[in-house]
Amino acid sequence: MPAPLDTARLIADRRPGYSLPAPFYLSPEVFRQDLRLIFGRHWLYVGVEPDIPEPGDFFTVEIGNDSIIIVRDDDLAIRAFHNVCRHRGARLRAPGSGIVGNLVCPYHQWTYNLRGELIQNQHAGEGFDRCKFSLKPVHIESLAGLLFICLAQTPPEGFAAMRASLEPYIAPHQIANTKVAFQKDIIEAGNWKLTMENNRECYHCTANHPELTVPLMEFGFGYQSSPDNVAQMANFEELLARQHVGWTECGLPSAEIERLDEITGFRAVRLPIARAGESHTVDTKVACRKLLGDLHRADLGGLSVWTQPNSWHHFMSDHIVSFSVLPISADRTLLRTRWLVHKDAQEDVDYSLDKLTSVWTATNDQDGSLVERAHAGVSSGAYEPGPYSPFTEGLVEKFCEWYLDRLATGLESDEQ
Amino acid sequence: MPAPLDTARLIADRRPGYSLPAPFYLSPEVFRQDLRLIFGRHWLYVGVEPDIPEPGDFFTVEIGNDSIIIVRDDDLAIRAFHNVCRHRGARLRAPGSGIVGNLVCPYHQWTYNLRGELIQNQHAGEGFDRCKFSLKPVHIESLAGLLFICLAQTPPEGFAAMRASLEPYIAPHQIANTKVAFQKDIIEAGNWKLTMENNRECYHCTANHPELTVPLMEFGFGYQSSPDNVAQMANFEELLARQHVGWTECGLPSAEIERLDEITGFRAVRLPIARAGESHTVDTKVACRKLLGDLHRADLGGLSVWTQPNSWHHFMSDHIVSFSVLPISADRTLLRTRWLVHKDAQEDVDYSLDKLTSVWTATNDQDGSLVERAHAGVSSGAYEPGPYSPFTEGLVEKFCEWYLDRLATGLESDEQ
Amino acid sequence: MPAPLDTARLIADRRPGYSLPAPFYLSPEVFRQDLRLIFGRHWLYVGVEPDIPEPGDFFTVEIGNDSIIIVRDDDLAIRAFHNVCRHRGARLRAPGSGIVGNLVCPYHQWTYNLRGELIQNQHAGEGFDRCKFSLKPVHIESLAGLLFICLAQTPPEGFAAMRASLEPYIAPHQIANTKVAFQKDIIEAGNWKLTMENNRECYHCTANHPELTVPLMEFGFGYQSSPDNVAQMANFEELLARQHVGWTECGLPSAEIERLDEITGFRAVRLPIARAGESHTVDTKVACRKLLGDLHRADLGGLSVWTQPNSWHHFMSDHIVSFSVLPISADRTLLRTRWLVHKDAQEDVDYSLDKLTSVWTATNDQDGSLVERAHAGVSSGAYEPGPYSPFTEGLVEKFCEWYLDRLATGLESDEQ
């Protein structure tokens, strides 16, 4: 029987600027703490309003052993409930999506309306008070169409501030006027933090992402200057400055926001597309000829948004790619990717799924392999934390700092 | 490292009339206690005499990590042994059934007769005393042809009383003169107690069992009276009273026996088949035209028998369906179903397997889905125990009460 | 929550001459101790020099969660490193084999030469000291071409003594002048010690290995004399004595060496091939017509070598079969088998793979089934240790004694 893990001590002993000690990636005990203190107490990105445009539309999201139903009510309000019948606990709906009038448990037909109220059940007897058996609600908020839930009784501070900051950036892409053209789930064979760390740097891009590095400019993600690249970097900075002026003229905020260290942490920046391109596609041209919202130009670069602990997004003129990270176990992580286009765009007329999705489908697969390789390696007894690059892995360090701080705060609150 | 689970405290705190707290369904520790204190110390239904009609016939049954060989000796006695060689512990027989002369371990040919005595082994040396290396016996009893084993050194009280009560009900169906026409194993993705709870109510039948509810009268399994069904319920009661008279005239005991709260708990009742039918088939008519035992009428309703902790059975005029629940892990349960017909009945002449098995094959699959759905739901952190219906889930509550009482008693005996 | 396992107490209480108590085979805690104290602190057989004949050739070996790269450097030296990048811990190479110039981590292109030195990495900043980030070395030694690694900082004593003893026996087969004609991995569903115990006796051979017992003489592996076999045993002893004389004349040491109880324990003996045969093949004739080394006769019997804790080998005149046991989990074990022939032998000219490999492929599969059967049996609560035969299972007992002594020593060193 190994000694109980002292997570607080592990946090205190962690060397800043270095990858995390192995138990953070491997320990089932830390994983339970992650679920309880990180995923249980922060705002989680889980989907978009266009997942459920009409009354009765719903989808579920699974986080650890929890399952949450997110549903559009008849008054168009979006609500979230635990996917657990109040009778004997059966799941109301299998994981997935669909359309419902009421939420009817298939086991014994306990029936809830879309406000979560129990409105029908048989054989309960005279004194049974249905009011006491509503579905358990989950906090849900829309940020310009991005849906965030919080499983805690009392959500943490900061959502309003995040919305205030990000809404002007995201709003021009009008998520409400998009549809989900494609969604793909992959399961990565690694800890969710390795998935997040992999997302927070592009140091690995050149060697691993031949498709992504066509439209993506790595210089936007941190670089060490050297005699070899000093001219390129200067060019990039000049281009960036020029483009920011243009974007501002178009009414598109583009300056970097970096508030990753807040409880509800986030970051946003608009960056040019490489090769004077337009979008995250194999030829850098738009994948959908019907542009988003009221945008009239295709060459508007890409707005990238990151939130703590579990999402990132790229908004182009023609489409949006949106990523949600959902932990399954200490060594399994679901990456759910949605591609959004204008809701009136027609497949095979305005866009082809293949062009729309090929860059990020390939990139996700490549990243999945890297995460698996990283997880296998840190599982070795010989692993010891190594140094993050101060130039290219600064955002990885910020993710780790946020994570450790939030975990430590959670553990402290347990003790009180 | 989570705090050790205090099962005794969980038992004491459980709210009567409500489904069990989550650890009873999920905790590997409770599962080990279930194996040790419930399955290790009570009479378990595992099969029928017709599984092993001839000398040398055997079958195995797996309970947790244990495997037991049940064999018919040359003197026709039925014996049970742990399926573990006394040399280096190898399994004597792979799970399944067959015919043997002696039990020979395939590893080093240690050879046991069907009384479990070691009668041959090589290279043991001069002073080796074979008497000390008999197979470890397991208690086994036949109740009118139903085989029950007990893994404890000293079985609990109550088997004789159960036999005295049930034998007159079961005997007319003459299990000894049947054969196993079909056996099917399914693995349900849930805790064994969810399998049992699901069996102990028919509240879920109407919406989930379109095949079963053709022959089965739900009124026999508890119902809340309402203006809608008061006339139907009165009709049912009247029918039942009338049939009890008829069954008594045929020499078939039919009054309800309800002793589910005893250590060796059980229940029996004979109920009419719906639609003035005869058997558990899609058209309610007999599946086998050769009736069981000395029965001369097909329309004798169905005798249902339940035993704690792991079985139920339906005896009709033409066939018997018999169910054995065997836990695999906290979240996996084997349901083994046998269909018995008269031993002289010929397949495709007197009965077709399809008609014989279709109702309960479909019903088992439906129940398996419900158990999986229930297990998934109670795994959620949002699950809290909900109320059983006093009208339709009284037997579920009785199962839970029996289980908790037996578990508490076992835990207390540990402390002494 | 079960009480913590007291392995030291289990060791002290073990009854000599009997199979091990169940926790040694089943407990995940003992398995972790096995990895740490047995596999982490002793010399492990992992492969042969002909796996990596040329500069840049490498193969990996996985032991528990560890992965080690074994590589031939440009100076022909053989080196071993942990397969873990010093940056963020990613596995440098997926499990398997291949050819490299340098070892380049695919994640961020950290580049190591074949001495394990970090020679290239980008974006590290000015003060970065590459000397501090060499790959972690693993001790490796060649014993006449058999490669042994030790994961401990300081290897245990005894390797030099083992080499001095075994080299004269093995050298005539000239491993350096062989090639790996075939390699096969099988995963046995049992604890690694059951794999080893199975290897250390031939009591099970007659009934389980119809192919192997054609060339193998069981009398060489221990036998209880009896009126039935006394003449056969005398014949065998006479044959053995006669052959030892002949082997000595050929310059082949053949006397039994038995030092299995040393920290770096081993055993060797040359035995005749049955039926006046030559090799471990279905017809007992050589599988490869090009003999090994400078051997000029085919009928040289078989040199068998065993090492603690994880290998055995058979050297014939025409080929070598070599076995490496690698634990995966408490109930899963990898058995990796290599067949070696003269490096100049041509497939389908000098040998056919089928004849070369058929005896041991069949034998391994049979042994895998036995190990699975043994593991299933000892998992039963009814298992208790049984007696080893003093005639046929003496080497099993020696393996167990070595294992328990080494484990006890390791546990004691923990406490100091």
Strand-helix topology:
Three copies of one chain form a homotrimer.
Chain A lengths: L6 H7 L9 H4 L1 H12 L4 E5 L8 E7 L2 E7 L5 E5 L14 E3 L3 E2 L6 E2 L5 E3 L16 E7 L2 E5 L8 H12 L7 E11 L3 H8 L5 H4 L21 H20 L7 E3 L6 E6 L30 E6 L3 E5 L4 E10 L2 E11 L10 H26 L15 H22 L1
Antiparallel strand pairs in A: 1-10, 2-3, 2-5, 3-4, 4-9, 6-7, 7-8, 9-10, 11-17, 12-13, 13-14, 14-15, 15-16, 16-17
- Tell me the helix content of chain A: 25-40%
The CATH architecture of the largest domain in chain A would be: Alpha-Beta Complex
Beta-strand content of chain A: 15-25%
Uncertain spans of chain A, ≥5 residues at pLDDT below 50? none
Number of domains of chain A: 2
Tell me the greatest interface: A-B, 33 and 33 residues
Describe the protein's architecture and organization.
The structure is a homotrimer of 416-residue chains. The model of chain A has no long low-confidence stretch (mean pLDDT 96). The first copy, chain A, has helices at residues 7-13, 23-26, 28-39, 159-170, 192-199, 205-208, 230-249, 353-378, 394-415; strands at residues 44-48, 57-63, 66-72, 78-82, 97-99, 103-104, 111-112, 118-120, 137-143, 146-150, 178-188, 257-259, 266-271, 302-307, 311-315, 320-329, 332-342. In chain A, the strands form three sheets. Chain A has a seven-stranded antiparallel sheet with strand order 1-10-9-4-3-2-5. With 416 residues, chain A is an alpha+beta fold. The first copy, chain A, folds into two domains: 44-155, 3-layer Sandwich (Rieske Iron-sulfur Protein), CATH 2.102.10.10; 162-406, Naphthalene 1,2-dioxygenase Alpha Subunit, Chain A, domain 1 (Alpha-Beta Complex), CATH 3.90.380.10. Chain A is built from nine helices and 17 strands.
